[in-house]
Amino acid sequence: MNTTSPEGGLENGPADTPGRVVLLTTSHRVAPGLLSWAAWQTLHGADRVLCADGAHPQLPYLREAGIAVDEAVPSAEELVDACAGGRTVVVVASGEGEPALTDGLARLAGSGRVRMPELELLPASYDLPGARLLDLVQVMDRIRAECPWSSRQTHTGLAKYGIEEAYELVEAIEAGDREELREELGDVLLQVVFHARIAEEDPETPFSIDDVAGGIVAKLIHRHPHVFGDESAETPEDVKEHWLRTKAEEKRRTSVTEGVPLGQPGLALAAKLVSRARTAGLDVPLPQGEDIGYELLALAARAEAEGVDPETALRAAARAYRDAIRAQEARAAEGA
């Protein structure tokens, strides 16, 4: 087995076989010590285990498992020499990886002057789906603490951005722009995390992003008894019936109109009220009047009956009108 020289370098072993270098990577989003079986086997079987980061979160767990870890920062040449004689050297990578070391190894391999050891990248732990959400929470924590603008924001001050981002998301969906859709979903998600971070600071009724996520998880499970319980649902209509029934039980509402936000766009509000009445089996005649508002209400009711979202339909017509305006402007410019 190789030893460390008094100068801190790695002494050479026999040079008959090139050996093996294993770059061990871990995810900071997974609790330290939760490594794969392949990683533990490689660590226990290695001749040397090196880690340049003395504060690496894995080190206490590796040493607890009886693995000697040297806090060495070898050069590429030293690492190749340390593998001579068929030895295996494991490098526990830092969170940023080991770019200087890997670049050095690449240069040595490209030179053709050195017999290179076998090089292996071994992920020791993997991110679970959704793990990057933890990064977002951490970044938001830091921004809230250190950014002069973000640290002063309130729920009220951010409210308008939530509306704007929601509309931009809808626009991306209707435009069919996948790249824009991904970005706008991120902007909407930011609003959720930002508000949850602000809510943690409330002196009387604080809550966190975990409380938000826990609440929606519990709600989804409760409102999908056909998935998580004993009930059955064969059609989307069955699912909607389950949803409305459990929602009514949760809210204990006395009217189907409760919970319909009056601040939403007028056509959407009208269609929602008509939908609530129809779903509840209420045959409520539309109010009559001379004002254009009543005509719009009738159009919204007609759209809902035909399964058309009136807001979406109006936006599509508005876009067509916008394009017609631009076309006429272009013709006018050409004739000028």
Quick structural gist:
The protein has 336 residues and is mainly alpha-helical. It contains 13 helices and four strands.
Summarize the structure in words.
The protein is mainly α and 336 residues long. It folds into 3 domains: 20-123, Cobalt-precorrin-4 Transmethylase, domain 1, CATH 3.40.1010; 129-206, MazG-like (Helix Hairpins), CATH 1.10.287; 253-312, no CATH class. 54% of the residues lie in helices and 6% in strands. It is built from 13 helices and 4 strands. It has helices at residues 37-45, 59-64, 76-82, 99-111, 132-146, 155-175, 178-199, 209-222, 225-228, 236-251, 266-279, 292-305, 310-335, and strands at 20-25, 48-50, 88-92, 118-123. Strands 2-3-1-4 form a 4-stranded parallel sheet, sandwiched between helices. Helix 5 crosses helix 7 (178-199), helix 6 (155-175) packs antiparallel against helix 7 (178-199) and helix 11 (266-279) packs across helix 12. The protein starts with 19 loop residues before the first strand and ends with a helix. Residues 1-14 have low confidence and may be disordered.
Task: Give the overall average pLDDT.
Answer: 87
As a whole number of angstroms, the C-alpha radius of gyration is 31 Å
The count of strands amounts to 4
Largest sheet: 4 strands, parallel
Q: How many helical elements?
A: 13
Strand and helix layout:
Elements: E1 20-25, H1 37-45, E2 48-50, H2 59-64, H3 76-82, E3 88-92, H4 99-111, E4 118-123, H5 132-146, H6 155-175, H7 178-199, H8 209-222, H9 225-228, H10 236-251, H11 266-279, H12 292-305, H13 310-335
Helix pairs in contact: 5-7, 6-7, 11-12
